[in-house]
Amino acid sequence: SLYKSALKKHIVSKHTNPKDVKWFKCGHCSHKTTQKGHLQNHIIAKHTNSEDVKWVQCEYCSHRTKWESRLKNHVKLKHTDPEDVKWFKCEHCPHRTKRKSDLKGHILSKHTSPKDAKWFKCEHCSLRTMLKDYLIKHIKLQHTNPEDIKWFKCEHCSYKAKFKADVKKHTISKHTNPEEQYENSISKVTF
Question: Where in the cell is it found (predicted)?
Fold first, then answer.
């Protein structure tokens, strides 16, 4: 689970002598990780030809992914009846979400006093935020050389973006015909 993964990472980084860590090393580059699954994800993402990847296709829309777990998450978020979803509920207000990480962001932004929050500061400018993911995105957008970024490219044209979600939005708006878009929106409502 996500919690176990984060706990293991914490224990390894804070309480384990580096000599005692069992590392899984990439055979293609210097990347290493303490989790075998993460190494497999790295190899697929960085060192596998897209033609050689076994893609898994959503049965309700045109979405596809290299990972079965991400497909399950996609189906839960996009195509599952709200009655069948495990919702993460805010303990302070009626807000609820399908993602645990979204609930954390909601609680920080809506129910956390600035003086009680852990702040993440940008080392390049005056920005500070309670959300680590936002800081990472900010640094990638504002302070990273274009040559150092892993760009996500459209399969149909020369468009590229710093974030995969932006390419997905582009593909839907520019390369999906209106009938498909309509069918996908209907399937989301009637599943």
Answer: Nucleus
